[in-house]
Structure formats: C-alpha cells, structure tokens
Amino acid sequence: MPVDLNNERPLAWDSATLDADTKAMLDNLQPNILRAHVREHLSVLFVRFNDVAEGRAFLRWVATTKMKSARKHMQEVRDFAAGRHRGTPYVGIGISKAGYRDLGHSVEDVREFGDPVFRDGMKRRVAEVDDPPVEEWDRAFQREIHAVILIGDAEAEPVERLREEILGELPDSARLLGEERGQGMRNPAGDGIEHFGYVDGRSQPLFLKDEVDREPKEHWDPAFPLSNVLVPDPFAPNPVRHHGSYLVFRKLEQNVRAFKEIERDLADTLGLAGVDRERAGAMLVGRFKDGTPLTLKPKPGGGPVANDFTFDGDDGSKCPFAGHVRKTNPRSFGREVLMARRGQTYGERADEPWDDSPPENRPSGEVGLLFMAFNSSLLDQFEFTQQSWANNPGFEVEATGHDPVIGQGERDIKVAFPKAWGKPELSGPQAQVAQTVTMKGGEYFFAPSLAYLRNL
Ligand code: HEM
After folding, report:
1. Are 175 and 48 in contact (CB under 8 A)?
2. Metal-binding among the record's keywords (predicted)?
3. Of the candidates 365, 341, 343, 363, the residue with the CA atom closest to the CA atom of residue 352
4. Tag placement on the chain: N or C end, fewer CB within 10 Å?
5. Ligand 1, atom 12: nearest CA belongs to which residue?
6. What is the pTM of this model?
7. ipTM of the predicted assembly exceeds 0.90
8. Which 3 state secondary structure label does DSSP give 74?
C-alpha cells in the first residue's frame, strides 16, 4: 500500500504493524525532516560540481558512508532518552535545480518536480517575496549553488571531523562556494533562543505519534499529515516508497541594536513601565522573550513554554494581528501552509541576548538566523507565508501592518497598538517599526531520498 501522505493520524514509526511501504519510506528518508535533529553545532557547505560523474560519485559516497535514515535517527533519540548511548551526527543533502542539471538530469526531467518555485530557483523569485536584489547578497549566494551539505551535532568535535572528511573527498572538479556556521544559543531556562533574545523553535508541525503524545492539545492540534513536508522523490528508484522534501535556505541578518531601540521606543511611546515594558517587544513577536504567548498573558512567566493556544477571541487587543507568530501561523486556518522549521542562529557576540543591557551594547550586524524549513510546496508554504502573510499589511485585517520581524517591502501604512493588554483603547497612528532583518542570500533545494543518493 503506497504511503498515505494525507493520513491525519500521526505516524507511529515504531509500531510492529507498520506496513512495508512506510517502513521503506522511513529507511530512505533523510533525518531532520519529520523530527528535528540536534544541530547545536552546524556547518552548512555550499557546493558546485562541474563534472557529472565526479559529482554523482561524491554524493553517493556521502550518502553511503556518512548519512543515516530518518528511522535510524528516531531510534537513536529513543536510545538516548532511555539513558543509553548518544546519537550519531546529522548529515543532510539538498540539491538545487541547477544541481540536478549538473548531475546529468535533463530540462525535461527537472520538470518532474511539481514545485514551480523550485524549478525557478531563489534568484528568480526576488520580486515575488520583495527580497533585496541579488547583487546585494553575500557573494557565495550570488553564484550558482548546486548542493548544500548540512553537518550537525550536539558537540563541536564531530562536526569538525566530518567536515574535514567530507571536504577532503570533494573532487577537484567541484568547488566549495561558501560555508555558514550555525551555533545554538540558550537562555538561562535552557530554551533555544534567537538573536533578539526570544525563545524560538517551540511551535512546529509534529508528524510522529511519540512527539504528539507529549503535547497538551486542548486548543491547538500540533499533529500534521506527512503531506505538509513530504513529496514522492521523482528520481528515486521507487517514488511510492522514496520521498523527499523541499528545503528553503535563507541567511537572515539581524540588526539587534536597532530592534532593541525599537522595543525601548515603543515602550516609551505607550507609556509602559516596569515589567509591562516587556509587552512592547512581545507585540512585535507575539510571544514574550521567555516564549509566553501574548494572546494568553499580559506578562511573561509561568512555567514551560506554552503552545496549546489559538487567537480565537483575540481582536488584536492582546496579540496584534501583525505579531510575527500570529502572521506566520494564524492557527484558526492555514494549517496546510505550516512548514517544519529547522533553522539555526549564526554569529558570535559578547553580550547576553536575553538580559536587559541597553541597545548600545548590542550587535548591529554579522549575527542572525540561518533560516531553514522543509516544505512539500515552496510556493504554497514558504513563499506564501513570506509574500501573502508577512509582507502583506492588510492580511486578516486591513491596515494592521507588515510582520515587524520578517516583513519585506515598503512599510508605508501607519499602524496603532493597544495601550493596555486586552483593552480597546489604541495608541495614535504611528509609522510601522523599521525593518531589522535583512536577507543576505539563499537558495531552494530538494532533500532527496537516500535511495536516490545511494543509486547515483
Ligand atoms: C531572523 C528572522 C526570524 C526571527 C528572529 C524569528 C523569530 C521567531 C520567534 C521568536 C518565534 C516564536 C517561537 C515559536 O513559536 O516557535 C517564531 C516562530 C515562527 N516563525 Fe519566525 N523568525 C524569523 C524568521 C522566520 C521566517 C523567514 C519565517 C517564514 C517565512 C518564519 C516563520 C515562523 C513560524 C511559522 C513560526 C511559528 C508560529 C507558530 O506556529 O505559532 N520565521 N519565529
């Protein structure tokens, strides 16, 4: 029986009754798609091949000697939780449409990818998502990237070792065009945070029964069908069993100093004092720094980071419609748009991102997010989120503004903020907050099945 990607019931990957096609799917799927792989230390290598046979041989070697399957990863997570040994590092591969051409697939072949946006590549989609012109991207991303190799682990040493080994095997005909290094950051509570200091990565579509079972789900159902992230791999030996996922990569630089000034100025404008000042930034993100959803509480604090909520009954007086998490997941609709986010922060800084040190002490560049997400349709998920939600000041409710965190394009309309949490009185109309996240380049990739890579 072909794998039913639309099954609404989360996947019991370890069930004794799992059918043969689903087992084969998990044995041939890359890790980090259905379940996030630990990647506190991360190296992202961007490669160009230039020789069909050598490019194929290299990817085959990486796949057969360095990569594990999604199922192996799930077993490793279980073993580790049971107090047995640590898992092995993550190695993932994504291939761009130019990469498929360079590996010997014809133009007609590449049309088998259903996603038109993947077939275009990110450089040709600048206008649609209001990205900066390609000439302004970091040099490596201006070039034609064929593949991305992701190497991640909880420790630095295995990443360094694997990186050396993999680069050592890169054929002379190939080029390493660039590399990005990711490095996880945590707050004192141990939660992963991004550079503005907010807990990140909490809300995810979950696909596996053991992950879904651990979540409270009175208001928000975190379980999603595989169809949110998986598609049959068109070039694999058996696309009924062999699946892949579209991977969007974007280097997003964060001007932390400017964002902290904006938080401070907004708190001043609204006359917020003491702990209430925290609400300024929370109105931009939709959560407080500690992850507390603004639609649930007027102040931060109170236990583990909640995700069992919707915005039903919140007319924008608690969490503004433009708040980043409300824009990118309105919750009462658009479930098919949600992607599996697998990004990592980059860049080193001397200050502590979560404390209340003044803006002057914050970095104004060179730090940010290596945004990565798995999609079954880049057009209907990543691009839709960026274009129709984040960049659209009239989404859901007219004139509520761009996504203050990731919105791109002219922020020409004025907006108003609730003066007190849950109260109707609004501030006077004011200019939208300035853009503090700048896209520095990226590409669209397909993360093929291991069956494809091993057969190259
Ligand atoms: C530097 C850039 C970005 C920053 C600082 C950022 C920050 C955050 C934070 C703090 C959260 C809350 C944590 C959570 O709910 O898991 C979040 C959630 C989220 N972000 Fe971003 N983000 C960035 C880029 C993006 C981009 C480019 C997209 C998609 C186009 C995106 C989509 C989402 C989604 C879908 C959620 C989860 C919303 C939910 O399910 O409630 N983010 N982000």
Report:
1. yes
2. yes
3. 363
4. N
5. 200
6. 0.98
7. yes
8. helix
